[in-house]
Here is the input.
Amino acid sequence: MSVRIAVLVSGGGTNLQALLDAQKTTLRSGRIVLVISSNPRAYALERARQAGVDTAVAEKKALGSQAAFEERLQQILTDNGIELIILAGFMTILTERFTRAWPDRIVNVHPSLIPSFCGEGFYGLRVHQAALDYGVKVTGATVHYVNEIPDGGRIIAQKAVDILPGDTAQTLQRRVMEQAEWILLPQAAEQVCGEILGITRKEGSE
Ligand code: GAR
Here is the structure.
């Protein structure tokens, strides 16, 4: 028995790749059955196809409004019997209307040690540039549950990464991915899937 996972992406999809690869190792209690992109040109979609995983696109601009976008997402997720949503470089904020329908069933990876350098406007390279501008010596990644507050849900796992002299946003992003995100996200996904199965088993035995 495994948890049916949808991974939501917008860009290159290296975290998606880490999750797909981890299905042979760390990620045993869940199966990635669907990848949904908010961007029809995202390379992440190609990664999904190469792994034989179904894909879908939900583009806010094409759908006309946040409400229509979230309705479309909800429809695709329900149609596919999804039990856990993993945001892996998904760049569209989800409103309370959506997150309330999935309590403790949406997780996100963020490329800093929350509560530093997070919230609205902090995404991708901007997060790393903000850490460099502030002058912190340690940053990292956080996997957390998603609620209505951007990057504000309960923390599941964190990993610290050193900032080195001469770092640029690009070199730092790469180190945070290699040393933290690509390891932490599959581990946290496995932990959450295990908890979901535990809960399901308990409910099933009552
Ligand atoms: C990752 O660093 C991810 O943590 C970040 O975007 C990158 C996506 O890369 N997400 C955010 O900033 C969300 N606030 P990927 O497409 O190669 O996984």
In short: The mean pLDDT is 96. The chain has one domain: 3-205. The CA atoms of residues 116 and 198 lie 32 Å apart. The domain at 3-205 is CATH 3.40.50.170 (Rossmann fold).
